[in-house]
C-alpha cells in the first residue's frame, strides 16, 4: 500500500504538469524508504527535493501534497509500519459492507472503505469534472449499494410501519453515503484531473483561430504564450560561437606558437561565429489583422531572453515605432493604446514603407529577420514594391505573415502577389501554433 | 570498507548541527537535501537568487566533513580539457626528446621496419599513462579516497555540450579517458551544482539531480547568519538592520540585497559605532546594500518609512 500511495502521488504530480521520469520515481521510492512516512513535514521536504525541479513545480508539489496526503487514510498515530497494518485489516474486512459501515458509524472505517472503493473504481483515472458523479456511482457499487437496496426493498415489501421507517432510514443513509462518495471523487478530480483539464484546454486554445478567441480566453492565452516563449527560448538560447573541432586554424596556431620555434604546443581550432538574432516586426494594426498582431507581439516580446534585439513598428496609414510603448507599459494596455492611436486610419502600405525608408531604415541590417504581419490590402494605393525590394536586400530574411488564406491573396485590393517574390516565406497564420512554428524557423536560421 | 569523511552524515539533525558548527546556518530543507544526496548518491542542484549562500554551502560542507573541496567554476566555452583532464603535451614532448637516444638504442637490434614497429608498440602506453595526465577538478574529485565535496559552480554559464558531458560524471561517478580507460571513483564525492538561472538547464541534467531551491532567508534565519558572521553586533541593531533589509527586498528594485551584503552592512555599521539604525546613517551607507545608482534613487523616498518601521519593530 505504501508503494501505491507514492505511485498515485506521482501520477497526480504528472497530471499537474510536473514532469516525473521513471528514474525519479525510483529515487523517490528509495528516498521515502529512507525517510519513512512518519514525519509528514520531512516527507514533504524529501519529495519536493526529489520530484519537483523548478519553482513552479515546487508550488504544484506543495498544493498536491497537502491535498493528497490529507485525503490519504494515514491513521493519526501512524508509525511507519502503520500503512501495511491497515492494509491487512482491510483485506479481512472484504469490500461491500455499506450496511455494516453505516450501522457502526465508525468514521475511520468509512474513510478507509471510501479510499478502497475509490481505488476499485479507478478514481485515479478521473480527468474531467463531469465525471465526478459517474465515479461516485461506481464507488457506491463497490461499497455494496446493491445489498443495501435489496434490504430496502425487502423492508418496503413488509408493508409495516416499522419496515417503512427502516427503509426510509436506509434511503437517508444511502444519500449521505453518496454525498461522501461524491465529495471523495471531487477531491480526486482536484488531485488528478484539474491539471489535465488545464493542459487539455491549452491544447485546444493553441489550435483555435486567433480571430475567433473569446475575451475570457485572453488571460489563459497569455499563460500559453509564455509557455511557448519559454519553449522557444530553451531551444534557441545557445552559445554564439561554435568550435569546429578537427578543423585546424593554421594562422592562429602558427601565431600562438611562434615562441616555441613553431612547434605546435597550443593548437587553435577554427570557430564559427553565430549572428545575434535580431527581429524587426512591422505590423498592420488595422481592423481584421489587429487581433493576430496582438498575439504575435505578445509572443515576440516574451522572447526577450533569446532575441535581445527586437524592434517593432505598427502602421495603418502611417508607420510608427512602438517598441518603447510595448516595453514600458503593461502589455494589454499598451496594445489597446497602439491599436487606438495608429490603427484608425485607412491602410496604406506604400506610405508606411516610405515612412520606414525615411525614418527607420537603419533598423534593417544583415542580421535582421524582417517579419511583416499584414493582409497586404492597401486600398488600391501604390504598394511601393521598389522600396520593399530594397528593404529585402538589406536584411537576412523576409517573412510575410497574413491572416488570409492563399486563395484570397491577390483578390480585390490585396497586393500580396506583388510583394511575394521578395519574401523568403509568405505564410498564412491563424493559430498560436502557427506563430510558434514561424518564429522557431526564423530563430533556427541563427544557429 | 575504507574510512571516509562522510561519517558525520548520520541524520538530518546531525547535518544541521554540523553545518552550524562551521558557521553555516542551515534550514530543514537544506539538511534534508544533503542527507538524501549522501544516501542516494545523487548530486544536488541548487538554484536561487545570487548571494543566498549556494556556493558557501559547498565550502561549509567540506569544512564540516574535513574533506577537500574541488571547485569547478563554469563559464562559456569551458571544455573537458579544463574540467576533466588534459595530457601534459609539453612534458610528453620533452620526454620524447630526452628519450630519443635511448629509443635509438632500443631500436638498434631491429633489423627490419616491421621489427622496429613491433618493438615500438610494446612501449606505446608509456606516453599515455597517468604520469602524463593532468587531472582537473572533476578527475581530482573522483580520485579522493576520503571522499570530497565537488562544487560545480554556476553550471548555467557553461554550454549545453558541456552539460551533456557532465552526465557521465554525475550519474556513474566515473570518467572515461579514451587512452587509459574508465576511472571510477572509489568513494563518490558529494556533488553540488549551483545555478543562477541564466538559462534553463536541460531536463537530462535535472533528472539526475536532487533539486534544492534556496531563497532569501526569513528574518530569523538571516539574523542567525549575521550573528554568526559578525558576533560583535548588538541584538537591538541586529534585529533592526535585518528588518530593514527584509523590507528593502520587497521593493521594486533591480538587484535585491543578498545575505553577504547584509553581513557587509552589519560590519559597516559596527565600524561606525552605530547602536541604533537612524535615517542619516542608512542613507550614507546605502551603497553597501544597493549596487545600482538607479536602485539607490528608487528607494530614496522609502528609506524614512523603512528605517522608522525597523527601529519601531
**Quick one: how many beta strands of chain A?**
8
Largest sheet, spatial ordering of strands of chain A: 5-4-3-6-7-8
CATH class of the largest domain in chain B: Alpha Beta
CATH topology title of the largest domain in chain B: Rossmann fold
Unreliable residue stretches of chain B: none
Question: Distance between termini of chain B?
Answer: 55 Å
Strand proportion of chain A, as a percent range, falls in 5-15%
- The number of helical elements of chain B comes to 15
Give the CATH H-level superfamily of the largest domain in chain B.
Answer: P-loop containing nucleotide triphosphate hydrolases
Biggest sheet architecture of chain B: 5 strands, parallel
What is the distance, rounded to the nearest whole angstrom, between the alpha carbons of the first and last residues of chain A?
Answer: 51 Å
Label the overall shape of chain A. flat
Portion of residues in beta strands of chain B equals 5-15%
Helicity of chain A, in percent?
A: 55-70%
Radius of gyration of chain B: 26 Å
Number of domains of chain A: 3
Helix-strand sequence of chain B: HHEHEHEHHEHEHEEEHEHHHHHH
Description:
The complex is a heterodimer of chains A (447) and B (313). Chain A is an alpha/beta fold and 447 residues long. Chain A has 3 domains: 2-204, no CATH class; 241-273, no CATH class; 278-444, von Willebrand factor, type A domain (Rossmann fold, 3-Layer(aba) Sandwich). Chain A has 19 helices and 8 strands. Chain A has helices at 2-15, 22-35, 40-50, 55-71, 82-93, 98-104, 107-120, 132-142, 145-157, 161-207, 218-236, 250-256, 287-302, 323-328, 331-342, 349-359, 385-394, 416-419, 432-444; strands at residues 241-248, 269-273, 278-284, 309-315, 319-321, 368-373, 397-402, 425-428. Chain A has a 6-stranded mixed beta sheet. In chain A, helix 13 (287-302) links the parallel strand 3 and strand 4 (309-315). Chain A is flat. With 313 residues, chain B is α/β, with parallel strands linked by helices. Chain B is 51% helix and 13% strand. Chain B is built from 15 helices and 9 strands. Chain B has helices at 12-21, 28-40, 54-65, 80-83, 89-108, 113-121, 137-142, 160-172, 203-208, 219-229, 235-250, 259-271, 279-289, 293-299, 303-312; strands spanning 44-47, 68-73, 85-87, 133-135, 148-153, 174-177, 181-184, 190-195, 210-213. In chain B, a hairpin with a 3-residue loop joins strand 6 (174-177) and strand 7. The model of chain B has no long low-confidence stretch (mean pLDDT 86). The A-B interface holds A 19, 21, 23-24, 27, 30-31, 34-35, 41-42, 45-46, 49-50, 52-55, 58, 230, 233-234, 237-239, 241, 243, 263, 265 and B 12, 28-29, 32-33, 36, 39-40, 42, 45, 47, 76-77, 79, 89-90, 93, 159-160, 199-200, 203, 206-213.
Amino acid at each position: 500500500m505504501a508503494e501505491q500511495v507514492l505511485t498515485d502521488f506521482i501520477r497526480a504530480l504528472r497530471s499537474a504538469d510536473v514532469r516525473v521520469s521513471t528514474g525519479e520515481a525510483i529515487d523517490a521510492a528509495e528516498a521515502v524508504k529512507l525517510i519513512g512516512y512518519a514525519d509528514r513535514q520531512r516527507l514533504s521536504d524529501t519529495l519536493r527535493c526529489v520530484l519537483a525541479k523548478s519553482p513552479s513545480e515546487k508550488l504544484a508539489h506543495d498544493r498536491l501534497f497537502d491535498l493528497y496526503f490529507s485525503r490519504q487514510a494515514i491513521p493519526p498515530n501512524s508509525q511507519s509500519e502503520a500503512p501495511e497494518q491497515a492494509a491487512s485489516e482491510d483485506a479481512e474486512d472484504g469490500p461491500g459492507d455499506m450496511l455494516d459501515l453505516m450501522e457502526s458509524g465508525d468514521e475511520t472505517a468509512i474513510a478507509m472503505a471510501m479510499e478502497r472503493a475509490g481505488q476499485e473504481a479507478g478514481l485515479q483515472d478521473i480527468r474531467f469534472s463531469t465525471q465526478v458523479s459517474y465515479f461516485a456511482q461506481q464507488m457506491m457499487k463497490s461499497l455494496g449499494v446493491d445489498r443495501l437496496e435489496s434490504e430496502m426493498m425487502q423492508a418496503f415489501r413488509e408493508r409495516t410501519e416499522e419496515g417503512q421507517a427502516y427503509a426510509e432510514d436506509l434511503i437517508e443513509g444511502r444519500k449521505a453515503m453518496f454525498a461522501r462518495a461524491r465529495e471523495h471523487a471531487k477531491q480526486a478530480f482536484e488531485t488528478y484531473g484539474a491539471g489535465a483539464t488545464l493542459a487539455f484546454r491549452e491544447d485546444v486554445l493553441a489550435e483555435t483561430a486567433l480571430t475567433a478567441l473569446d475575451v475570457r480566453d485572453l488571460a489563459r492565452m497569455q499563460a500559453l504564450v509564455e509557455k511557448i516563449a519559454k519553449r522557444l527560448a530553451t531551444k534557441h538560447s545557445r552559445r554564439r560561437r561554435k568550435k569546429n573541432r578537427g578543423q585546424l586554424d593554421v594562422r592562429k596556431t602558427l601565431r600562438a606558437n611562434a615562441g616555441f620555434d613553431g612547434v605546435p604546443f597550443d593548437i587553435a581550432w577554427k570557430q564559427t561565429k553565430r549572428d545575434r538574432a535580431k527581429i524587426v516586426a512591422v505590423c498592420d494594426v488595422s481592423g481584421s489583422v489587429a487581433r493576430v498582431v496582438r498575439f504575435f507581439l505578445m509572443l515576440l516580446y516574451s522572447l526577450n531572453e533569446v532575441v535581445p534585439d527586437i524592434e517593432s513598428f505598427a502602421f495603418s496609414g502611417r508607420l510608427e515605432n512602438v517598441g518603447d510603448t510595448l516595453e514600458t507599459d503593461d502589455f494589454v494596455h499598451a496594445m489597446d493604446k497602439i491599436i487606438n492611436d495608429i490603427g484608425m486610419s485607412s491602410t496604406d502600405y506604400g506610405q508606411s514603407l516610405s515612412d520606414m525608408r525615411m525614418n527607420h531604415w537603419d533598423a534593417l541590417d544583415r542580421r535582421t529577420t524582417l517579419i511583416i504581419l499584414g493582409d497586404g490590402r492597401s486600398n488600391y494605393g501604390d504598394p511601393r514594391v521598389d522600396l520593399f525590394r530594397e528593404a529585402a536586400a538589406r536584411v537576412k530574411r523576409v517573412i510575410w505573415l497574413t491572416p488570409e488564406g492563399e486563395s484570397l491573396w491577390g483578390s480585390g485590393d490585396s497586393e500580396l502577389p506583388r510583394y511575394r517574390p521578395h519574401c523568403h516565406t509568405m505564410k498564412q497564420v491563424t493559430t498560436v501554433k502557427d506563430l510558434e512554428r514561424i518564429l522557431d524557423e526564423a530563430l533556427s536560421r541563427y544557429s | 570498507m575504507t574510512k571516509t569523511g562522510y561519517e558525520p552524515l548520520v541524520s538530518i539533525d546531525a547535518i544541521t548541527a554540523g553545518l552550524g558548527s562551521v558557521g553555516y546556518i542551515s534550514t530543514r530543507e537544506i539538511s534534508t537535501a544533503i542527507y538524501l544526496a549522501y544516501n542516494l548518491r545523487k548530486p544536488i542542484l541548487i538554484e536561487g537568487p545570487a548571494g543566498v549562500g549556494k556556493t558557501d554551502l559547498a565550502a561549509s560542507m567540506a569544512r564540516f566533513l574535513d574533506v577537500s573541496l574541488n571547485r569547478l567554476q563554469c563559464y562559456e566555452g569551458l571544455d573537458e580539457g579544463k574540467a576533466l583532464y588534459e595530457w601534459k603535451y609539453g612534458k610528453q614532448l620533452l620526454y620524447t626528446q630526452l628519450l630519443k637516444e635511448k629509443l635509438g638504442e632500443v631500436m638498434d637490434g631491429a633489423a627490419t621496419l616491421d621489427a622496429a614497429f613491433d618493438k615500438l608498440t610494446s612501449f606505446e602506453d608509456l606516453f599515455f599513462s597517468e604520469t602524463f595526465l593532468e587531472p582537473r577538478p572533476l578527475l581530482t574529485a573522483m580520485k579522493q579516497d576520503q571522499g570530497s565535496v565537488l562544487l560545480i559552480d554556476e553550471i548555467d554559464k557553461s554550454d549545453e555540450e558541456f552539460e551533456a558531458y557532465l552526465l557521465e560524471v554525475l550519474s556513474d561517478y566515473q570518467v572515461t579517458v579514451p587512452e587509459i580507460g574508465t576511472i571510477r571513483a572509489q568513494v563518490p564525492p558529494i556533488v553540488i551544482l549551483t545555478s543562477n538561472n541564466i538559462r534553463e538547464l536541460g531536463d537530462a541534467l535535472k533528472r539526475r539531480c536532487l533539486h534544492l531551491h534556496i531563497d532569501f532567508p526569513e528574518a530569523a534565519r538571516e539574523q542567525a547568519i549575521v550573528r554568526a558572521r559578525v558576533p560583535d553586533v548588538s541584538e537591538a541593531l541586529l534585529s533592526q538592520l535585518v528588518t530593514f533589509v527584509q523590507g528593502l527586498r520587497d521593493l521594486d528594485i533591480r538587484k535585491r540585497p543578498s545575505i553577504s551584503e547584509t553581513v557587509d552592512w552589519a560590519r559597516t555599521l559596527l565600524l561606525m559605532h552605530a547602536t541604533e539604525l537612524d535615517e542619516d546613517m542608512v542613507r550614507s551607507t546605502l551603497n553597501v546594500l544597493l549596487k545600482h545608482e538607479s536602485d539607490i534613487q528608487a528607494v530614496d523616498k522609502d528609506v524614512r518609512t523603512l528605517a522608522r518601521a525597523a527601529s519601531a519593530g
